[in-house]
User: Fold this.
Amino acid sequence: MSKPLLLIVSPSPITTAMLEAASIGLDCQTRQTRNAQDALVYIQSHRVTLAVVDQDVSEGSGIALLAQIRELAPFTERALIVNEKADVHVAMEALNKSCVSLLLRKPLTDPRIIRKGLREAMSAHRRQMRDELKPHTPEQTDTTLVERTQRLERLYTVGEIASSLIHQFNNILTIMNGHMELLMGDLTDPHHLSRAQTILKAGQDGARLTRSIQDFMRSNNAQTELFQLNLLISETLKMTEPIWKSRRTISGLPIEICTELQEVPTLQGNPGELREALTNLVLNAIDAMPKGGTLTIRTTYKADEVFIEVEDSGIGMSESIRRRIFDPFFTTKGERGNGLGLGIVRRIIREHGGDIEVRSQPGKGTCFTLTIPVLKKSPSNGIHKTATLSLA
Assistant:
């Protein structure tokens, strides 16, 4: 079998060089063109796996070129490189007109993140080709096209709703956080003050999340900072503690929390978003243990990568469900779920240059493994402990 073929279309030698560097290790061939006309000629005579097009391609819009590539070579995966100042509407146009599977934003600075995106897009191409080789009836083909169209329409609707509501939501959080800060000034009981601080921290995380969405829409880079991962995990467990207690009150079944936090380096990233990702995983684990059980969170460090395991002893899931858990709007919780939580978790981890894996068996629980690279050498947080917490 011939190697995958990556076509890079960009008038910028710097962009081309960065993409070529990122493709090292993917075991693929690369070809480059500087303009749309040469790209169209090439794609008609070669079986291209992935076409990565610069929005600033010389003859006009990169989206328009990708739309033409879609018509000429429908099985070629498509990726768009957007400018630093491009807003969310450019992304939506790329989805609607070109059905891109990957968006890259300038400046392209981290080859590891770019490589992950290229690898996933090429994997999508292989899956698509395998599916096409299977026999399909006309009815199955029509159904697949309808489902894809409906999925894109739903994603577009979600984007529009988020764009219109984010400003109002940020105002609400600002008011809540302000009143909580005033209330904390009147509290004297240490227990009540600790609870209020936890509520305020959750509100501040929500405010940072809304700002990060606004920054994305304004094309600003998200702000990062140094943080201690083990401390962040402890804060997450404290924030979710009312959920554990309410579950025990309702069902009378115990849920134990076991933390095995080894010494890991201080990380650089967005602690609010990572706390959100961990909160999603903790709440999912609690939902997966309706008859009680144990939730274990581990941290380890190896070869410049930090590993976080979130493992439950719950009901587990079948292989068919496991393959779909990151799909937008897919949920096994019925009306209680929206099918977006795990997709958000994966997005957050990948924005930190990492990845997420899951292993599960029916009746034997589920374990999510998050991998985050250590991008900057720094002192460790010095926390190394194993503890078991039982709901009182």
Notes: The two ends are 60 Å apart (CA to CA). The first strand starts at residue 5 and ends at 9. Residues 138-184 form the longest helix (47 residues).
